[in-house]
Amino acid sequence: VIKEHYRNDYKMFESSISKDFKTILTMETELRKALKEGQFELHYQPQKNIVTGSIVGVEALLRWNHPKEGFISPGTFIPLAEKTGLILEIGEWVMYEACRQNKQWQDEGYNPIIVGVNLSAKQFHQNDLVDRVASILEKTGLDPSYLELEITESMAMSNEEDIIQTLEGLRDLGVYVSIDDFGTGYSSLKYLSRFPVNKLKIDKVFIQNRKQNEAIVKSIIHMSHSLDMKVIAEGVETEEQLTFLKNESCDEMQGFFYSKPLPPAHLNTMFQKLTV
Ligand code: C2E
Ligand code: MG
Ligand code: MG
Ligand code: MG
């Protein structure tokens, strides 16, 4: 069997993989270089309270500012970073930079908001994740209640003892945890009610095909509230979508209708200064 496998791999390699393989190696080298040379940037997308209209948070979204290619979106390089394990270093940088930036905004006198950081599966499954988060908060001076970690259903919905421990550790630390792209993965209602999770983020596919998914969106909103969680809609692009969400008592919204993800300097004008 092994021989058979090997022969097949070899054939594939000969025929078509060769070029892709080279591209992957190049990309891995480039990713390492990007990290070393500071080619990564975070853009931030505002999240609004639907009732008051004020900005309550921002989601940090990774951008690779490649010297030749320009901005490369995370969808194209995160999967490779995940596969090679480089995501751990990249993710650590993201968390540090997002906390640092949020603290800076607070120091500049803006109304404190929450910064959301996406965690990859590898990051979430690190044994010392809670310590790493604690250490970043300490180094940057950001209060834990202004950091929210986004995980996906597939990372959380399991009975494994260490997952529950990680989630409880994060809760005890005082950071928030939300479930990203909610509705696209496999959720177990049993775990959902038991897990210390603060917020569900309704995936944008349900918002954008709203008419077709009306019942689903309503159910997610009502379920969140019954479980004492907040709920945010992702990918809100039209006024019509926003009105629907408002009528259904969705707490928060994020999407192009209000703002695209922006470099930090562009956000200052949208933030409110604390009045003294
Ligand atoms: P996500 O966490 O679900 O982030 C939301 C994505 O939807 C972002 O894409 C955002 O630009 C996009 N978006 C926001 N509003 C709208 C809208 O109204 N319409 C449409 N069509 N799209 C909207 P982006 O920035 O390309 O990120 C894609 C994914 O890459 C993210 O999905 C997240 O899973 C991953 N990602 C981004 N940054 C990081 C990171 O620092 N670490 C990890 N592990 N993953 C990241
Ligand atoms: Mg996200
Ligand atoms: Mg999402
Ligand atoms: Mg996602």
From TrEMBL:
Domain EAL: 24-275
Organism domain of life: Bacteria
Name of the protein in its database record: EAL domain-containing protein
